Amino acid sequence: MTVLASRNESHHPAIGRGVGTRGAEGGRLLDTMVSRAQWPRLIGNLSPGDPLAATFVAPDDYRTYQVKGVVEMIAPATDEDRAVALAYHRQIHRLLTSLGVTEGQIRFWLTDSDLYRLRYRPTDVFVQTPGPRAGSRLEPRP
Asked: Does domain 2-127 sit in CATH 2.30.110.10?
């Protein structure tokens, strides 16, 4: 699962759920799809150069990583982007329902309505999984 966070000029936060992420430009950048119809404040806060936080959680074991980054581009989704989102919908729906989450609890955020692609350059990655390493910066491999 993916939760995104932005802020406006007054530093008031806005959050939203991503519906699919992929690497871009050889993994140097990330693309996360998000519904502007569902999360207008999140998208409205963002322009190239703005900070963005993306938190990725594996719902079956709560392994969690937060990626801090800088927005490179915001654009309406292409057909390829929509395919990434729809594949994510199928995968996360299957996983969550296998864990006992009901259809009604997840249906509202699995949408491709007014879908946008957020492209961002990661600057830091933090382990957020509960335990002794929570909050620690993940160092890049040499």
From this structure: yes
